[in-house]
Amino acid sequence: MTAGTPDSPMIRMSSVDKHFGSLHVLQDIDLTVPPGQVVVVLGPSGSGKSTLCRAINRLEPIDSGTVEIDGKPLPAEGRALAELRADVGMVFQQFNLFAHKTILENVLLGPIKVRKLDKATAEREATALLERVGIADQAQKYPAQLSGGQQQRAAIARALAMKPKVMLFDEPTSALDPEMVNEVLDVMAGLAAEGMTMLVVTHEMGFARRAAHRVLFMADGRIVEDSTPSRFFEAPESARAQDFLSKILTH
Length: 251
Ligand SMILES: Nc1ncnc2c1ncn2[C@@H]1O[C@H](COP(=O)(O)OP(=O)(O)OP(=O)(O)O)[C@@H](O)[C@H]1O
Ligand SMILES: [Mg+2]
Hints:
By secondary structure, this protein is an alpha/beta fold. 37% of the residues lie in helices and 24% in strands.
């Protein structure tokens, strides 16, 4: 498989359409994300943010259009899809850790099964990742023994263990108690600062202002605004975005 050229975008979606029955959830989406860019996706409930994330790694099949990761088109299915999907890490609202495996085992699994690392190497890498997200001392515990914030950091470590080129986050802090939100956002901001290409669906406006290079605002399956954080928050152009911001910023 040929790698992308240095100039190729990390994510490229062209004319992507997706329906759920008669509902047109992604409408002619064109999106190009260069390497190292941190994109925050905002928008009202049901606007298609999760579907956009899921379309990027083909968790959700699309009706038409193309999705490329690092210059390579995403195959529709099969082994090639599994390989390319490893390039795209995803972290969800619900942490989706394996309940009957320790935190270390959760992080080890993908590298051993998919990247075919030997156990010693995988353990070394996994331990370093758990240190990086600040939970090395939790390695031998089971997910239920951890706080929500620690579990979500374990989920981030597990995704990073696959050495992804792109990280997708779909409301990673929405299920957390407020006092645990920042420990997860700090890990994400660290990743952003290290140059990871990231697409983040979040309601955390502080994170959007602090860590994002770009804000996408979605409504009704379309990208309605494509802006910088300062431009978006200070002077949103569309009535939809103005309405959205007036609702969230007054709470
Ligand atoms: N599997 C599915 N089958 C049918 N409709 C779906 C399915 N998944 C999502 N939808 C619908 O598609 C639309 C977009 O959903 P999506 O989850 O992408 O929105 P969202 O912007 O992530 O919303 P939220 O902020 O509530 O998470 C919604 O109207 C939703 O009800
Ligand atoms: Mg969603």
